[in-house]
């Protein structure tokens, strides 16, 4: 938990980007 608090906005942004990319790929594979 302490590590997450130390996460920089950039890391958070990158993680979010990665998550969204994976979601898009999943939805694309579905249709």
Explained architecture:
By secondary structure, this protein is mainly alpha-helical. The protein has one domain. Helix content is 87%, strand content 0%. The protein is built from two helices and no strands. The radius of gyration is 13 Å and the shape is elongated. It starts with a helix and ends with a helix. The model has no long low-confidence stretch (mean pLDDT 86).
Structural class: mainly alpha
Number of DSSP E strands: 0
What is the succession of H and E elements? Answer: HH
Question: What gap, in angstroms, lies between the N and C termini?
Answer: 37 Å
Shape: elongated
User: Mean of residue pLDDT?
Assistant: 86
Share of helix, binned: over 70%
Pick out the low-confidence regions. none
User: Which radius of gyration do the C-alpha atoms yield?
Assistant: 13 Å
Strand and helix map with partners:
Elements (H helix, E strand, L loop, with lengths): L1 H5 L2 H22 L1
Summarize the structure.
The protein is mainly α and 31 residues long.
Keywords, please?
single chain, mainly alpha, 2 helices, 31 residues, 87% helix
């Amino acid at each position: 938990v302490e590590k997450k608090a130390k996460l920089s906005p950039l890391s958070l942004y990158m993680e979010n980007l990665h998550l969204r990319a994976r979601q898009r790929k999943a939805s694309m594979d579905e249709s």
